[in-house]
Design brief:
single chain, alpha+beta, 3 domains, five-stranded antiparallel sheet, three-stranded antiparallel sheet, 41% helix
Length: 374
């Protein structure tokens, strides 16, 4: 039996091979996080899982060496799904889960103060350059809040939050934001709002949450009312970066791990996906600074009683526009519009192909078809 440190290092490397990896930390935070999430037995089991779902029957030959019967192996895997450290589907299909968006988000309701502290530090120190990469499709993007779009500025369906909600199939689940939950544990509550149920799960992710007993199902009408509350509070809308998203995060700059990482870059707009930017009509601006207060990425400032937008920082969320009493700020569509991939599967295929290159991506597909762990 290999010693514990070797097993957890192998697990870090195994998760790092996912479309969005789990990079090694110089300070050892990666291993500290894994040890709080996985037992040593669970780490060994996770090492035998692929990045794509496989049946228990296909996985079991890799687990026999640990002395488990097929039923025991299935029970261990089901327990790991319940802990939010691997992914599972109905009919006993399992796969490893990436750190984020993935394992971290599944810790809602389970976070401890030490884990929250380590995850926050890891995000800023080690993970930001993995999660946010120039010229690599982002996992999530920013779309405008509803009231920031003027009538003549046509909005595509995938950039319209209400269209996304009304057109989605299946249940809609609302659940607590794990980022705010973590900062509550650290004694740093959200400065924007007391609301905590601000993460929206759709389609396959909604089914996963329902099976795990997490969150609550809401109607489309209830969800639209909640979106009005989120806009009033000042949350940035961040759906999964595809035309049929499975998740929508409603985020703030003080808590959200994504926005916190994004703000570390001098020009966040260069690293993120958004089809809009804010523009100020100085002849209408009254210098009230409402826009500056509502901006979650420090892109708007007021000088000489006039608002100014740093387009290198602006992510096109529209909060400044929707909160402007003088109507001085509007969202403008970028000259080059980015059309997101069709769905969840195509998004992650695109990310993985960019990470591996076409040749190595093809090798992964062939290995999977042959039943080899990937």
């Amino acid at each position: 039996m290999e010693n514990e440190e070797i097993i957890f290092r192998k697990l870090q490397e195994h998760i790092d091979h996912m479309p969005v990896g789990f990079p090694r930390s110089k300070t050892g935070l990666d291993i500290k996080i894994l040890k709080q999430l996985f037992t040593i037995d669970e780490a060994n089991v996770a090492l035998e899982l692929s990045m794509l779902p496989e049946s228990l029957k296909r996985i079991y030959p890799r687990l026999k060496k640990y002395g488990y019967s097929m039923d025991q192996a299935g029970n261990i895997l089901d327990t790991m799904i319940g802990k939010g450290i691997i992914f599972g589907r109905k009919k006993k299909y399992y796969s490893k889960l990436q750190y984020a968006i993935g394992i971290f988000e599944m810790q809602g309701g389970r976070l401890t103060r030490p884990l929250a502290e380590d995850c926050k530090e890891y995000g800023i120190r080690d993970f930001k350059n993995e999660f946010i990469k120039k010229n690599v499709p982002a996992q999530i993007r920013t779309i405008p809040v509803g009231r920031s779009i003027i009538r003549e500025n046509f909005t595509d369906t995938y950039d319209n939050i209400r269209d996304l909600i009304m057109n989605t199939k299946g249940d809609i689940v609302i659940h607590n934001c794990v980022c705010r939950e973590g900062l509550d544990l650290l004694g740093k509550p959200c400065r924007v709002s007391d609301l905590r149920e601000t993460c929206i799960a759709l389609k396959g992710i909604a089914k996963s949450f329902i099976r795990a007993g997490k969150g609550r199902v809401v109607t489309r009408s209830e969800m639209l009312t909640l979106l009005d509350e989120f806009e009033k509070a000042g949350f940035v809308l961040q759906p999964e970066n595809c035309r049929e998203p499975e998740l929508i995060c409603c985020c703030c700059g003080c808590c959200c791990g994504v926005l916190t990482m994004l703000k570390q870059f001098p020009r966040p707009a260069d690293h993120y996906t958004s089809n809009y930017y804010a523009a100020v009509d100085t002849s209408l601006c009254i210098g009230c600074a409402s826009c500056e207060k509502r901006c979650q990425v420090n892109a708007v400032s007021v000088d000489a009683e006039k608002a100014f937008v740093d387009t290198g920082r602006c992510i096109g969320c529209g909060l400044c526009s929707s909160g402007c009493p003088a109507g001085a700020i509007t969202l403008q569509k970028k000259a080059r519009v980015k059309v997101p991939p069709p769905d969840h599967k195509k998004l992650y295929s695109k990310i993985l192909k960019k990470k591996l290159g076409t040749f190595n991506y093809a090798k992964v597909a062939i290995k999977y078809m042959l039943g080899i762990k990937v």
